[in-house]
Fold these 2 entries.
Entry 1:
Amino acid sequence: MTRRRGPGGRASLRKDAPPGPPFRRVLVANRGEIAVRIIRACRELGVESVAVYSDADAGAAHVRLADVAVRLGPAPAAESYLRGDAIVHAALATGAEAVHPGYGFLAERATFARAVEDAGLVFIGPSSGAIAALGDKLAARRLALAAGVPVVPGTLDPVAVERPDAVEPILQEADGIGFPILVKAAAGGGGRGMRRVARREDLPAALAAGAAESLAAFGDGSVYLEREVRPARHVEVQLLGDDAGTIVALGERDCSIQRRHQKLVEESPAPGLTEAERLELHELAVRVARAAGLRNAATAEFLVDEARKPWFLEVNARLQVEHGVTELITGLDLVAEQLRIAAGAPLSPAVLAAAARAGRPERHAIEVRLSAEDPARDFAPAPGRIGRWTMPAGPGVRVDSAVEAGERVPPDYDPLIAKVLVEAADRGAAIDRLRRALDEVAVGGIQTTLPFHRFVARHQGFAAGDLSIDWVAEQWHGEADRQRVLRSALVAAGLASRDGVVEALDPPAGAPAAAPGPGRGAETDRPPGWLRGGRETAVDRWPR
Amino acid sequence: MAAVTDEGSAVAGVGSLRVRTAPASARPGDEPLTLGPDSGHRLEPAGPGRALLLEAGGGQTSQPARTPVLLGALRRPRASGPRLVEVVVDGWRFEVEVEPESRAALRERGSRDRRVGTHGGAAELRAIIPGRVVAVSVAPGDPVSAGQQLLVVEAMKMQNEVRAPIAGVVERLAVAEGQTIELGDILAVIGQDQ
């Protein structure tokens, strides 16, 4: 493997050389908040950044903040952010030395990592070989088992779906694993190709459906069986490794609050674990990573059952959405560490020190993912134009976002619009801070998941650390929460209209119409029609 | 009918108001509200686009409930139609229609009369999320059973199947494969089997 080193590459990281930037220029193959996050790290390290963008993002924050920006194509991801060839070409054309994939899009496509490597560029992440080995969930299960890590009971090879005579052996194997059982895609992720089967007789149909969905989504119809671990928590371990093969765990995160396998709330440390349990989890994660030859940043995911026993699920060979939670309790900049590692540097003293402290965390951090989704309609996407946009600030609050007032959230990509993170001395104080921070959030123009996060921050079971991957299904009744405030909303709208405030509220002349027909209001262009000078109008007119 | 034609005074002043969620925000079960001139509720301004809603009898004690709200104006689809106000309470966003009670009653009577003449039973399918049509499984004239897949719409990485709400015949197909759709767009009309 050839690796082109820039003037600030490996040579400058020798002990006798002054520490310079790890690269001269890095291409960021992503969009949204994670692209901005990576560009910020580059800027701080003195590394120039190259953004790529689709037509939907021509004016987006990551394009504005980068030193150079290259257009990839039209809005659909398949014609822009998923075009590996165009991205490699852009990197070469702009003189970038390395490519950071972020998360999602091409981050875990081994073929893309290989194309970057083959072009003589550095892929900032695990090697293409490690990504390929871990991307095959069955291969990862075998690898973990061989490393002595407990994996969720199930099959270790693809089950033969297409042969009718194979059905009986599969059913017998399933009986041995036990129902309810999960049919999962070997190439899977995000719950696609997954089926839950409660009854033996439903298994053949579920296998066929799962295989078909998996084939359509990933081009690979291989499926396997896994016992359903219920009730369970989702706990994952942040890993960093260098070229020399040193691998460390930087603590764990509890991401149990999720729906449809998409995380909504993440925190670190995982509440309720003893130091010994924490360290065991970290050790298991490092063992899997070592077996896979992992370097750079990755995350090992586990289910933790009622008896607090961990079961290996999979490794995500990339930076994760929720990496900021770990940054807040370790004080590290994981993206900066990724860049240094990719340039050939060994794990920094700060990383090693944080890893040594990982069993006894002294701070607590929580992240909520604010998305353009309707939490009353099963978190259905709700893209549109943002009106008001006020994010929280103050002690212990961090917001990672890439949007602002007046910007359109395109329907083409992930609906995540901001990550609100809080950090405090302990979990109770962190929840108090989260509640305070969410009270400061004001978003207009689009529906967001804010009501759900406000609910979590006020929930006694959450405060008690009573977490489970079924938490959302069991605790959240979105429409009921919406109905709780509907009357107040109608009263407020009526009063604002009657008292004449509505004149001040009227959008400026020439502004585009909001709702040309039934149901269109949320999607069309929205003037920044927030009450200007409302106080004067109101004070004059309203009875006191 | 000055109250109807004179926009400035259409809702300001004394009189009851009819307030309801606008079609873009409406969900089954949403009840409209009639707000009398002496409702006892009050809005206390709290900065541009912000107010505190003081609701009489809303609190557990004699103190009124105090709820922070965000307020915004939306351009109404028709100049003569109800006012359209954006309200955000506890993170829930509503588009709300406000009009004088008298005019709402008039309009409702009118629309009831019109409905008499239309043929019964046709089901209009509208987009509940913006996105792209990635597959069309039926053609106009096709008989469909209730629950049968008509279209697949992709929005934000998710494929959503649009299914027939009733058994019948595809009367109209308003979209084609590859087409971008917006919230509320008509996708198809299913006529009921005779």
Note: The longest strand of chain A covers residues 247-259.
Entry 2:
Amino acid sequence: MSEKSAARSSGATLKAEGGVAAALVGWLKEALEKKVFDALLIPVEVPAGDSFAYLLLQDPAILDKASPLPPVMPVQGGKAISRLTMRGNGSKRVAAVVRPCEARAAIELSKLKQAHLDDVCLITLDCPGVLPLSDYIGDPAAGAARFAEAAAEGDRSPMRPTCQMCNHFSLLGSDLHVGTLGADGTILIVPGSSKGERVLEGMGMPVDAALDDWSARVEEAEQAQTERRRQAHADLRETVAGAENLLDVFSSCINCHNCQRVCPVCYCRQCYFESAALKLPPENYLARAGRKGALRFSPDTLLFHIGRASHMALSCVSCGACEDACPMDIPVGQVFSLMADRAQEALGYVAGRSLEDALPLVDYEMDELHQVEQPYVEIYCKQEVQDA
Amino acid sequence: MPESLVISKGAEETTRELLRSLLESGKVSAVLALGRTGSGGEGVAYSLFTDPTAFEEGGAACPLFPFMPANAGGLLSRLTLQGPPSEPVAAVVKPCELRALIELVKLNQCSLDNILLISSTCSGVYPLDAGVDGALEEKLPGYWEAVKQGEVDEDVRPTCRACVNFVPENADITIALLGEADLDTQCTLHVNTEKGAAFVEGLEGASSSGELESEPVQRAVGQREAFREELFAGVEVGMQGLIRTFGRCIGCHACKTVCPICYCRLCYFDSQDAERSPEFYEGELQRKGGLRVPPNTVFFQLGRMAHMSVSCVGCGMCTDVCPADIPLSTLFSKVAASAQALFEYQPGREVTEEIPLRTFEQEELVQVAT
Amino acid sequence: MENQAFTPRIVGFLCNWCTYAAADSAGVSRFKMPPSVMVVRVMCSGRVDPLFVLTAFFSGADGVLISGCWPGQCHYQKGNLHARRRTALLKSIFDTLELEMADRFRLSWVSASEAPRFVQVVKEFTDQIEQAGPSPICDELFL
């Protein structure tokens, strides 16, 4: 991950008076007033105070209830950006304040032609993770306190399982990245593109602060998290590998498809797994039930999950929105993050790293991936023996 | 005319034996019922069983389990959408699932031909989150105690505690459960239709002519009506109330997906028509200074109410599946109760009773137009 | 958000054969009425999906009017009878949830020959909305 940190060598600074969130919100207000951008997309506390929702706003007064890094992620920011820009950008330049995984999802969605980022300035922050939604809604005040404490101490244990093993929490592929990790009264605002540079110019902020200290802290944390992720995936693989284990993991799945609905990358208006293709005459279901003695109904549970993975794993940003939304507490985010990492690795791709990276299934080389042309047994069994 | 059969076995055993014998004798080719899943049996899901041994003691099937992973009305619609099965299929469903099924028949989404409907007087189901990791097993003894007393365990879905339509008289066979003190040793099967009678022919039991609406059932109706009023009174009303309630709605539409009545393959709110253009966003920015993204949160909820509340059976799937713990079923049931009262309509009461929005009278509702 | 300088914005779904014709006739006859109704011509009041009414309100309409042929006179026989049921349902939803929209939503029957009646309906409804004030959701961000 050091390539990211090395990509930029300097940033602007902002005094974190009254705390990071307050300083940032003040900065954003000023930017709006100065028309450095025309509108802002940022999480704002909802009227009942029990959640946060993305608001598109141009009235700076609304920012009083805004939170650049709320304790929860009810709607994945990438999805919000996609909904906003699905039909184009219009005449407004919008700045979107999102977490790194949300920005990465937006980048993937742009490649998938579900979002237009030309007039969108992606502003990301160092992310400590988010609490699972159900751990917050019941008692928002306690949740907020727990989140603040954990974030301050770099403790990811109360966060979503996918956040606990996240190693992409500090992105330098966005237009502007706010470096808060270990910030001591001063936060860094690092431009990652000419769009970001223009914003800092418009705010009259010189890009002359060295990033070394912060970069070093980020790199250290990223390395620790990468190891955590590797270990978590290895442990997880034990519990999910093999047909019986996988069936156990999904034994309580009720086929509600929440996971697909909240996933930022799953953009299909009508999912294949809900289409007429899978609505079959009764004889089909009865024959299958006859063959096996019983057929779980509605059927095709594993088909849905593995099929969905085959459709979106290459763009999965491991945000964990799916797991948050699952009513049966299935570790679907963790399972998908495992599949996604392996799939992206196999094709030399990192979801959301850059708009310039072509989608692996759209791109190809004449001379590559010869190993998958070989017979399965020859290659994969050999690997397992080597690994063991 | 069919009557009732009193079987000298407990309800659990009677039900399993009935289904086992239906399969074994070939009278039905399959049974849709709840069954345990996973190698440890921790999960519970509906299955189409064809193997009679599943209904033996210790088999995977658990037809009377107080759980609803999906509304079986919707499942039967999935099964018969393209036509009825060529051979009879039995289905063990809760009363609200039966009512949803009948609504779906009226909506041309389901067929009743060759489907044997078995239901029971219902004491509710536990919420989905109570069924994670086999946690429900320890609740079962308490649940069945409550059933015998004609009561409802407090921990079941709130909409179940508030349900007054728990006596399914239009099933082919109704198993009397609620208020039956001797449920462990004896079970009464009320045979309501000729179809039902044909399927229980040969079953060993004493004939009787008892009423489904026993005294405990009537008492239960009163209790649940009282709770229903209390539950509905707690709903936050007014636009401010809706904004507060749906502040944490994430627009996932899971409620719609699990709703048995919402059958549209492509919901209006997922379609291109509901997508918003940059001009819309800019217009709203101009008008109000800001708006929520994705938009249309309260619009979706009210729109869904407008589309389905006349057929809402109050099963409670929506509340259970909501990632934001919004008490949707309470809200929707409250609105549905008024909408249904307006047309003197009860969803699922009678398959020939047309859905109010698909018909009209020449002279009615005079006060509506001014 | 003051009531004085407030011209209500009312979305009117007028059926082509009856009310729209009446409105047209009123215009041709130079009848005076407040410029509050934004007309959406539909072929029949039965075309109006409850979602149209909701969309109008969420887009900022202060009031919504559906107007069509008298029962028994529908150009398509029964469209207006369906419209009446849908209106009743929507009003029931608004009433149950105590939404102000209940008082800002009206169904009328105005036939093609009743231009003065159309004018009266518009005047009455406009008055009613003026009294009620601008839509209470016009400033809501969290819809």
Note: Residues 238-368 of chain B form one domain.
